[in-house]
Structure formats: structure tokens, C-alpha cells
Amino acid sequence: MNTNIKLLFATGILTLAVGCTDLDVPVASQYTTYPSSEIAVQGKLANIYFKMRDCFGRRYMEAQALSSDEETAVAYNGGWVDGFAYAHPSLHDYTYEDATLDWMSVLGEGTVTANEVINSGADVKYVAPARAMRAFFEFIMMDCWGDAPIIDKTVTGIDIRDRQPRADVARYIEKELLAIIPDLPTEVNGDNYGKPSKYMAEALLAKLYINWPVYTAASVDQYDAATAKNEKLDDCIKICDDIIKSGKFNLGSMAYRFKFAPNNSDLKVEDFIYAMPYDTYTATGMQYGRSHSYKDVKSMNPSYYGMNLSNSGGGYMTMTPEFASLFNLPGDERNNCIIGDTVHVYNPTTLLPTSKVALDKSGNPLVLTKSITLIKQDETLDVGDNLTGWRQGYRPIKFFVTNDDFKNGRNQSNDLPIFRYADILLEKAEAITRGGTPTNGETAQSLFNQIRSYVKAPTIDHNPTLQEIYEERGREFFDENWRRNDMIRFGHFEDEYFPHYKGFPGANFDKTHRIFPIQKKDFDVNPRWKQNAGY
């Protein structure tokens, strides 16, 4: 992890943080006076930048991946049922007490903390990044819960204690981002790694624009991907062009797999526009390996990561058969980021499979099945706590695990990209395909083929269809928390994929479940709020 980020994070821990999860209090108490010295402001900013670290490293990831077709929950003879916290998102059958949804209050804390800087009289070089983070937190709340509080006392005619219509929140975010982009730094590495930049704000704005008809629909269940019209397509293309023309980003400075490797911050990944930094000791919370690894990985000698691991894998998330089938392009380097069928031991330096076959605890070749066989067809999603159960489902190894990290509470040092240059290229291709105006001689085909070329997958000889773009986004951005967002926009969230099958106990296909229920603890402190429709 970048040394400057480590120091900034340490400063943030040492600085007194005034958090607030209760929005149902007098407005005046939301904005406390904070010391205006540079070190105090920097400490407060650190608290804002990294507010979502724990959630991104586990709970936010679980909510996004399990509610999409990327991954499903599995249990082992009752282990990891955990009150159906993981099965519920897999079935779109959430309840307002599910632990995987307990992070909305963190976003509220983040916006309130940002306001302390914004309203402190600090220099614009501090205020603009704080506003960018506030807009980012608002975006996540709007994306995941629909109507959201606009926690900004300068917006007239609203009460910050109340949730505002989703479309109004979208327009507020747009206005905020357009206002602050000129004041944000243009540097994305060095001291500004992991902090908001002009391009982070533009990437967020592009994401807002490509989803505009989703967020401005009359209600969440009334968005129809087949008929929706997007008035912001050319705006999306314009923003993408500004990022592309900056010359600060590229796809192919390193192989795909290294972008997500342990200590990837040291590699200065030029595809990363904005990332969440992690470190196994100083910035903990990244635990993808805990949920994704083969359950009995500790007993393997060596594990398929090329070394013995000091901790077991939780193994309660595995790829759905439908999503695993996407990785079928010949020569595609991304295929090496999942394991299935006969598993080979990987070289932890090259991050490529060797000729050595990985062995399970019985000394037999480890063979993972694409299909998943449950003990019985119910919402426990139980596969059995034995060798047969453990081998159910392919598994992602994109965020590669090393024992140096895993031995420390299974906390990894892989930084998590939130916005990537690859996303900008595919968003522009999508905007053109949906009817936006091509610019700079670029076509949807040429943009799409930039992605295919750098991962050494076959290029296409035609402009891609929306379905091809949707599938390519699945291959490119899996495990990066955008699949649910994509599925809703492309009209696939109500598709059938394991175990979200029609007739399966608990499987829900109600379109209101495109957003999550407000979690119980958020109702406890905000009794003015109403539960989302459908819950």
C-alpha cells in the first residue's frame, strides 16, 4: 500500500471523528465547528476518504455480488447460514435485518463528516474533495436504496432528515459534480492516490449519466430497459472523452491479473482512476479471499495460491454456473482469474497456473464443478460440509491471496478499484450503441476492441450489440461491485440464475427488489423514514 496513504490513514485514526448515524435530530446539530488547521482538516478528510473501507472489503461486496448473477451463497451443513444473510440477496428475498445490508449508516456518517470540512471555512483544495466524497456517498445510497437524504443544508426546500425522491438526488449529484470538477486536482497517483481527483468525479458523473433513466424513472419498478430513453448519452460521451484525452490512463501497461494483485498500489496501475487502498496491517478490511476461497484451503499443501495458508477459507460465496459460463473466449487472460474443473497450483509471482495439480485433503486432485448440487432445494443453499460439498462451484481468484496477508485475520493488501479507465471505454461504447453521437473517430467497435485486445481475447468485426457489451462488462469487471448495477440497467436483474430460479423456495422476482430494504438499525434512529415498496 502507498506509504503516503498509510500516513494519511494513521492521521485519520488519531484525529477525533465526530460521526453521526441519526439524521432525525435538529439540523443545527449536524454541523459542528472543527479546527481549521491543515493537520486537523487532513485528518478529517482521511476519515471521509476511507469511511467505506470495511464495507467495500466485505459487506458492500457481499450485497452487490450475491444479489447479481456473479456469485451465490452456499452453506455447509448449517455453517454460514447466518440467519440467511447471504442466501437472501442470492434469492432477492432480502429482509430489513440482513447483516449484508448494515452499512447505510456508514454512508450517513461519511456525508456528515464531509459537511464538517465543507462548512469549516477551509480552503477550496480541501472543500472540493470533501464535496466529491459526499456526492459519492449520495450516489451509493441512491443506487442501493432509491430515495435518499440529501445531507446538504445549502439546498433549499428540503429537510436533511428526510429521504428525497431518487430523481432529485440524481440531479443534486450531477449539479455538485459539475460545480466541483474544475476545483479538483488532476493528479491520481503519488500523494493523491486513493483520494478524489477531477477524473474520479468525472468517472462518477459518467456512471450517473449512463444510468440516468434508471435513477429518474417514476419508481424503481417502472424502469424498462427495452423502452427507456436516456437524455444524457451525449453528456456521458463528453465526460468519457475528457478522461480519455487526459492521457493519464491506459489499459495495457500490465497484464490484467496484476492489476488486482497483492500490493497492487506499488505497481501504479494506470487503469485505476480511483481505488480504495488496503494493507493487511495498517488499512484492514479487504477480505475477498475469506468468502471466495475453497473452504478447506488451509489443509491443502500447497494451496492453489502456490503456498500454504495459515487460515481456512470461509468459502460461503461461489460463482453461479451462468456467470462462470461467460469465461469462454479463447486466449482471454481473464480466464486465469477463475478456477474450475481440475484446479492447478498457481505461481504466486506470475499469478499464472503451473502444471502442478492442486490436491485436496485426501490427496486427490481438486476438481470444482461448475454446477452446484444442493442437499435439498431450500433457502439454506446447503451443499454439505464434506469434500463433495466443498467442490461445488467455480471460484474467483482475481484478488489473489498471499499468506503474508491472509495470516493476519485474512486481511489482504489488494487495493480495490472503484473506477477504471476500462469502464470509461465501455461506457462510451454503450452510450454510442444506445444512440449517442460518436466522437473523435471512435466507434463502439473500436472502443470494445480496445478491451478485447489488451486481454488477448478475440476482437469483433462489427459494432457490438448491447448484449455483447453487457457480457463483456461481466468478464471485465467481475468482483468489482458493478454487476448488480449493470444487470438493472440492461434489464437482466429479474433473469433466472442460480439459485434465483422461478419455483425455487424464496426466490423473488418483484421489480421493487432492484433496491434494498432500509436496514432495521437505520429505522431505529430515523423513525421518520418509510420502508421501500415491496418490503
UniProtKB/TrEMBL annotation:
Q: Where in the cell is it found?
A: Cell outer membrane
UniProt cross-references to InterPro entries, sorted A to Z: SusD_RagB_dom, TPR-like_helical_dom_sf
User: Which residue range or ranges hold the RagB/SusD domain?
Assistant: 390-535
Q: Name one Pfam family in it.
A: SusD_RagB
Q: Which Gene3D superfamilies match?
A: 1.25.40.390
Name the major location. Answer: membrane
For this chain, the family text in UniProt reads:
Belongs to the SusD family.
Q: What is this protein called?
A: RagB/SusD domain-containing protein
Q: Print the keywords alphabetically.
A: Cell outer membrane, Membrane, Signal
